[in-house]
Amino acid sequence: MFSKSEIRDALINYPLKEIMEKATCEKRKIFGNRILIRGIVEFSNHCSKNCLYCGIRAANINVKRYEMKEEEIFEVVKKACELKIKTVVLQSGELKRKKILKLGKIVEKIKGSFSLAITLSLGDLTKDEYKYLKECGADRYLLKFETSDEKLFEKLRPNTSLKERIKNIYTLKDLGYEVGSGNIIGLPGSNLDTLINDLLLIKELELDMIGVGPFIPQRDTPLKDGKSPNIDITLKFLSLVRLLNPISHIPATTSFDALHPEGRILGLKSGANVVMMDITPPKYSKNYKIYNKKTEISYYKDLAEKMRKMTEMVEKSGNKLFFDIGASLKAQNPRLIF
Ligand code: 5AD
Ligand code: SF4
After folding, report:
1. Using CA atoms, how far apart are residues 214 and 126, in angstroms rounded to an integer?
2. What is the SS3 assignment for 69?
3. For residue 328, what is the DSSP state?
4. Cα dihedral 275, 281, 283, 286 in deg (nearest 10)
5. φ and ψ of 207, to 5 deg
6. Measured in Å, how far apart are the chain's first and last C-alpha atoms?
7. For residue 334, is pLDDT > 50?
8. What band does 293 get if pLDDT is binned at 50, 70 and 90?
9. Secondary structure percentages of the chain, helix, strand, coil, to 5
10. Residue 246, class by beta-carbon neighbours within 10 Å (0-12 exposed, 13-18 middle, 19+ buried)?
11. CA–CA distances in Å: residue 253 to residues 64, 192, 244, 267, 320
12. Could you identify the atom of ligand 2 that is nearest to the CA of residue 47?
């Protein structure tokens, strides 16, 4: 199911239930019923960019901006370790160079104190900055291409280009990062062809991790009146991502819960093998409004309680939480790449 017309046929005609079962079967072959857990710290909501879909865009004056202190980040990571979490994702908007250098020191300190993998999600940086952060100990980097449609990319992400984004993805690979990317499903201005091309681009990039999620309108953005895609096409897309990329790590993110009360559980039944737990202190998290967060789970104050909820959710999907560093299977066994 790799040609454009086969993918189109699957998206239009294939029954959702069957495609979800196929994706689950493919996932089970590689990962069994084990679901990896990653902790995510949204350590700053400052951003110099102005993506039309994003709630923390620079032009949004309704956001209370914050930046977590080094000790606060360290404390949260320590708590994650106590809960046996083995990967921490540090995410922010696009920051100034001075802040990147400061973050490098924090990465160094975390890596020197705990045995865990660090994933960074900081957007477009210079090659030197990516290199510096790698040398500080960062293991992985998430850089979503958002949409494979060049024109739409430039319209929705002013003063940036898809070419530059893709170039950065290859730079990260060259520097030895495990790399994740993906799209936003159903961005206003996209269509079925965009989805097909997004799937083909994801496959072409040979990613270690693939993050896909539905567009969710945010009330303070120019796209506030845009519509989310429906849950069925979102799950079909996710299932196809799994079928086309059998060994990649694929999370069921909280954004799925915005479409359906059991969105993430359905994601775990559509080939996802990873869950993300937001471990940002609530006083900050409430201001990280990329989209309007609907799920209560991100507001449970006590992390142990949050972990219990996460365990329950994963078990409801017929799987089990697995506390492992969850390195790329490509890195572990290059023979698996065909
Ligand atoms: N809907 C869905 N995803 C969004 N992101 C930003 N804004 C939205 C939105 N309105 C995603 C982008 C970005 C990640 C940090 O959040 O994919 O890469
Ligand atoms: Fe900034 Fe990323 Fe939001 Fe764009 S999507 S405005 S780069 S945080």
Report:
1. 28
2. coil
3. -
4. -10
5. -90, 150
6. 15
7. no
8. low
9. 45, 15, 40
10. middle
11. 24, 22, 19, 8, 17
12. 1
Using the predicted structure, report yes or no on whether residue 285 has a pLDDT greater than 60: yes
Strands 184-185, 209-210: parallel, antiparallel or unpaired by DSSP? unpaired
CA 19, CA 203: separation in Å to the nearest integer?
A: 18
Q: Does the pTM of the predicted model rise above 0.85? A: yes
Nearest atom of ligand 1 to the alpha carbon of 255: 2
* Mean model confidence pLDDT for the chain: 94
Which atom of ligand 1 is the closest one to the Cα of 143?
18
Residue among 290, 292, 293, 294 to mutate when testing ligand 1 (max atoms within 8 A of CB):
290
Handedness of CA 278, 282, 288, 294 (dihedral sign): positive
Residue 105 to residues 45, 72, 102, 111, 175, Cα–Cα distance (Å):
19, 14, 5, 10, 19
**pLDDT of 249 higher than 70:** yes
How far is the C-alpha of 91 from the C-alpha of 136, rounded, in Å? Answer: 16
**Contact (Cβ atoms closer than 8 angstroms) between residue 278 and residue 57:** no
Percentage of the chain modeled with pLDDT above 70: 95
Quick one: tokens of 197?
A: 């091309």
8 A C-beta contact, residue 2 and residue 203: yes
- Sheet strands (E) in 200-270: 209-210, 213-214, 251-252
CA of 272 to the centre of ligand 1 (A): 18
What pLDDT was estimated at residue 292? Answer: 76
